[in-house]
Amino acid sequence: EDVPSQTFDNKDYFCGKETFPVYESIFTEEGETIRKIAIEIEKPPQIEIHVWTITKGILRHFYVEKLPKREFEGLPYFKLITRTTLSQWKIFSEGEAQISQMCESRVCRTELENLVKILYLEKSEKGHC
């Protein structure tokens, strides 16, 4: 389901706020899942990639990497999952830092899924701008 958007200068807006594309990549090998969530930022044109290594539901390793947009465009395994605002991305990043500490010793599948849901903009908000 796509969020209806207004377009100004080829940018998408949500409640008057600029939105940015969010991508996801998930690899599973040898009982380990590597999940990557990436956002495309225009200035400077780069991609911020948050990498989670999950073993049996426990977040074993978490880090952030930044790539030039050109390098990211050459990566075949990312798919566009949504567009989000910078304020929602900030909430996601702050929640991620809390979860990375909380989930070092226990299973956190639900918390990680809920964290990703923060990035999806609610349609109902459209009428309540």
From TrEMBL:
Recall the GO molecular function terms of this protein's record.
Answer: BMP binding
Q: Where in the cell is it found?
A: Secreted
Q: Where does it primarily localize?
A: secreted
Stored Pfam families: CHRDL_1_2_C (PF19548)
Question: What is an annotated GO biological process for this record, any one?
Answer: negative regulation of BMP signaling pathway
Which GO cellular component term is one of those annotated? Answer: extracellular space
Per UniProt, residues of the Chordin-like protein 1/2 C-terminal domain are 10-129
Q: What keyword terms does UniProt attach to this protein?
A: Developmental protein, Glycoprotein, Repeat, Secreted, Signal
Name of the protein in its database record: CRDL1 protein
Gene name on record?
Chrdl1
